[in-house]
Amino acid sequence: MANPSSAEQPANSFTSDIFDVESLAVPDGTETVLRGGRHLFPLLPRAFAGIRRIGVIGWGSQGRAQACNLRDSLAGTGIEVAVGLRPGSASCADARAHGFRTEDGTSGDWLDVVASSDLVILLIADAALAAHHQEVFAALRPGATIGLSHGFLLGHLDANGGSFPAGHPVIAVCPKGMGDSVRRLYVQGAEVNGAGINSSFAVHADPDGHAVDRALAWSVALGSPYTFRTTLRSEYLSDIVGERAVLLGAVHGMVESLHRRFLLEGDDAVTAYRRSCETVTGPIARTISREGLLAVRENLDTAGRDTFDRAYSATYGPARDLIAEIYDEVADGTELRSVILAEQRLATRDMTPIGGSGMWRAGEQVRAERASYAQAADPFTAGVFVATMTAQTDEFATRGHPWSEIVNESVIEAVDSLLPYMHARDVAYMVDNCSRTARLGARRWGPRFQAAYEQICFPAAQAAPDPALVEAFRTHRVHPALASASRLRPTVDISVA
């Protein structure tokens, strides 16, 4: 698959009539970003000019989080937030418990909410949206803005010769974290201004000329510490690839393979879990979040660095090859079609959970005993994980993604949103409870990563490290890019109930 054409390359600069934007230093120059914060909430009515009602369609983790955040941020402005649900939806009771009720019009039939809203934010499952988007389009009021938090629908439309309806602005605001993180960090932001989940935004159609400010307002209202620009196509490419790679699928395959490796070396199940899963979700994630990628290696002793370098050198190439394969299959529509086909097969049943193996039973004991020991990063595991993360950043950079998108989709989302949840519950829990699109991708590609690690990377790690690869990591452009992005968000550990 060739790199995206110049017409598809993200236009990273933007201006706003409402918000003060700033330049973020990145390896290739600068990108325009908006720094968020609750002090910007008074500007939301101006930025949402012409929007009197926002309809959030769907009540998954993103729907719940976004509806609650928008409602709280817009309280007292006269802009109403309503939730649209399918008739008989099992989510009605939970939406009601969160304050969205049919009696006051803040909850209703999904198509009725679509028809009565000026901004319609579509947060139903990807496959369901692909199947029912024409019903939504037909129900839109004239000139209503279509809002997305994922570009999956664009990929589906492109693959099937469809398009968004003319005359409607089409915007996207895409939080770089799971819905629970979007809500929990927003709540924490009441105490620490700027705490939240970063978001990208895209403007796909702008017939009235106000789409940028409308998207920025949406992101600010969600509590995003900083917002950067991308395109809808670039967003779904990086998002879906990331889910299948270092955000979820690769992590699943990695910890399974490492656990097996350590068992074969003679570790008991609990020690093997600590050296594999626990070291990724705990000390490695915390170090990257607070100090950056390079610190994972630099914090090791001399022997640990040698082990890290051998694991890194053996892992980088095979991981990069597999990530490139995933990217190609997302870009040509193969991966999107596999999601839709799987949803059709699973229409009347759910996927079997994967968390029943002995490895995950060991995790229960490890979590129960955390207070009794100090967990340090296993250097071999660290080398494998960091090599995979770096491979993804390089693949995205080669494909023309902006650096804000690269570091958020490859690093920040992992260490500030997903891995903390995996640490609290375990990786298997995340695979079994994430979005359907991500869950299907992790199940498809996790075993591919596991096989690559076991059959290619681990045997190769017996050789001496590659000095050129190690030096390329030490001087990598991702380090200053990540440092620039990290300065825009206060250090707040996500609360995990």
UniProtKB/TrEMBL annotation:
Domain of life: Bacteria
The keyword Cytoplasm belongs to this UniProt entry's keyword annotation: no
Pathway(s) of this molecule: Amino-acid biosynthesis; L-isoleucine biosynthesis; L-isoleucine from 2-oxobutanoate: step 2/4; Amino-acid biosynthesis; L-valine biosynthesis; L-valine from pyruvate: step 2/4
Limits of the KARI C-terminal knotted domain: 231-373
GO molecular function annotations of the record: isomerase activity; ketol-acid reductoisomerase activity; metal ion binding
Coiled-coil region list: none
PROSITE patterns documented for this protein: KARI_C, KARI_N
Domain KARI N-terminal Rossmann: 34-234
Taxonomic lineage of the native organism: Bacteria, Bacillati, Actinomycetota, Actinomycetes, Kitasatosporales
InterPro entries, per database record: 6-PGluconate_DH-like_C_sf, 6PGD_dom2, KARI, KARI_C, KARI_N, NAD(P)-bd_dom_sf
Protein name: Acetohydroxy-acid isomeroreductase
GO biological process terms held by the UniProt record: isoleucine biosynthetic process; L-valine biosynthetic process
Chain residues that bind Mg(2+) 1: 239, 243
Binding residues for Mg(2+) 2: 239
Family: Belongs to the ketol-acid reductoisomerase family.
